[in-house]
Each structure stands twice: as structure tokens, then as C-alpha cells.
Amino acid sequence: MTRIAMDEQVTLPDLQVMYVESTAGTAGAAAAFDQLESRLSSLKRRRFYGTFQRPLGPYRACVAVEGGEDAAVMGLKTWEIPGGKYSRRKLLHWQAEISRIGEAFESMAKERSCDMSRPSIEFYSSQKEVVLFLPVN
Predict the structure, then answer these.
(1) Could you give the CA distance from residue 24 to residue 31 in angstroms, rounded to a whole number?
(2) What is the C-alpha radius of gyration for the chain, rounded to an integer number of angstroms?
(3) Residue 108 and residue 8 in contact, taking contact as beta carbons nearer than 8 Å
(4) Each residue of 68-95: pLDDT tens digit?
(5) Which residues are 79's β-sheet partners?
(6) What stretch of H or E contains 122?
(7) pLDDT per position as a tens digit, 15-54
């Protein structure tokens, strides 16, 4: 069963990432991550993010840039995930019920005033836990 931890407000710094953009919105997230991961020499100790610009996209599969990496050589684009105030919620065992990610973001948006100028962020902290960040005013 998927468990959801309570929300809390946090302030995030800007984050430099390399990314692959889904051509099919959130429906193409898995394919975008597959493409991103195939360009990395190793997945160990990497920090992966998904971003979605409400209401219509785009969805981006992202990985934090590590020192010495050349995104262009890897065939990836770079971008900065904007920092600021976010409402944070942890979702456990997300892989078993992946649709719960979207449902959790919708629930969070009903509880807070969402900042539509910044994307929602998924931080894949482990195989069992994803941390959701909804931009708030």
C-alpha cells in the first residue's frame, strides 16, 4: 500500500540539471527517463528529478549535473530547475501505484496557492520513495 507523508513548506535552491523532454507529456515520462539513463555511464549516486510545468507541460526527465560533465557530448540539454518556496510531500512505494504521483500533486494544489510560473518537481530519492515539490506563492 502506498503511504503519503504530511506536507511541509521548504525553500529549494536553483538546481542545474541535464534533461530529456517528453514529447507526450507525463505519459512519456518512462520513455524520457529511459533515454536519459541510457546516456549516463552510471546511475549510482545520481540524483534524478522529473519536472512538469502545469497545466499542459512540458515534462522533463532530469539528472543533477556533476562536476566535469559535458551535457553536449552526452547529447543532453541543460536547464536550471528554479528554486523558491515549495510544498513538500513524500510518497512511499510509488512504483506500485505510479498514478498516485499525479493524484498527490492534485491534492497538494487544492490545499495551497500554486505558483504556475515554476514547475512541479519529483525527486526520486530511492526505489521506494519519491519526494514531491509543488511550487507555492
Answers:
(1) 9
(2) 14
(3) no
(4) 889 999 999 999 999 999 999 999 888 8
(5) 17
(6) strand 120-124
(7) 999 999 998 989 999 999 999 999 998 888 899 999 999 8
Q: Which domain, by its residues, includes 101?
A: 3-135
Q: What is the CATH number of the domain that holds 30?
A: 3.20.80.10
b/e map 47-82, b = 16+ CB within 10 Å = ebbbbbebeebbbbbbbebeeebebeeeebeebebb
Beta-bridge partners for 130:
91, 124
Is-contact 39 76, C-beta < 8 A? yes
Domains in the chain, number: 1
Q: Has this prediction a pTM greater than 0.85?
A: yes
Q: What are phi and psi of 49, to 5 degrees?
A: -135, 150
Residue 137 to residue 129: CA distance in whole angstroms: 26
| CA 4 to chain centroid | 17
The label of the residue with cell 506500485 reads 96
